[in-house]
Design goal:
Number of domains: 2
Distance between the termini: 63 Å
Oligomer: single chain
Shape: elongated
Strand order of the largest sheet: 5-1-8-7
CATH architecture of the largest domain: Alpha-Beta Complex
Bound molecules: FE2/S2 (inorganic) cluster
CATH superfamily of the largest domain: Nucleoside Triphosphate Pyrophosphohydrolase
Strand content: 25-35%
Radius of gyration: 24 Å
CATH topology of the largest domain: Nucleoside Triphosphate Pyrophosphohydrolase
CATH class of the largest domain: Alpha Beta
Number of helices: 4
Structural class: alpha+beta
Helix content: 10-25%
Length: about 270
Amino acid sequence: MSATLLAVAGIFVREGRLLMSRRPKGGTWPGLWELPGGKVEDGETPEEALVREWREELDAIPLGAVPFDFGTESGLVPGRSRRHVTLLFFRVRGLRGTPSAKGVEAVRWCPADEARLLATPPADAPVLARLAAEGGGAFRDTGDAEGRALAREAVENDPFIEGSEALRVRRAVTFVKRGSTEERDVRGLLVATPHGARAYRNVCPHVPIPLDRDGEPLLSADGRFLVCRNHGALFTPEDGRCVAGPCEGDSLASLRVVRSGAGWALGGGEAP
Ligand code: FES
């Protein structure tokens, strides 16, 4: 008996390089390079399937997907029945996260001349050729202002703190999160201390503006103080207390953070 499947694939180009993934061993078309995506499951829209597949395979989220092309594949899969696949290709306008080979063999960012030489499943080849032709021989970036705005919004709405996987002693990560309707956006800073991670509102206690160190890291090189150069304030990272400067004795407002995967997420509310 033959099966008819619906599948989706996403096209995301950044700085002229197309995001591609390598199919795992043991499945259909093992080892071939393709536009990342997969099957649409029962009850899913194609756009939802694309988000799920990229999350599962690349640990990244495609944003603002718009239909670009479609293709069909039909044939005998070794060891299986005959199957037909209709593939919907979407242009992806924004990206949340950094793609990695979470559920695929590998990922790569290919310029057009390199992508042309890769072995791909049959339905991908005409789409790659069309992309290169429309860009005059190169891949044109698919991201746009709306996609970037969607990415920014996704970051702000997600409690996960961007860059917190790389948190280590003597590093502070600043972030902005979307506030609730009653509250304005939350500007925060996450800092690693010998006693664990601490997070604070990134607002000086005496003047409601973010800590500023003229572009240098907020944490001093020896890790002893968070530094604000606006009026020369020093804060201890362990408790956010100001130990020198105009707000001496006051403290930065604490934020609750919780472990999330390899990093940290805002846990909601103020820390005790
Ligand atoms: S605003 Fe930070 S020290 Fe004054």
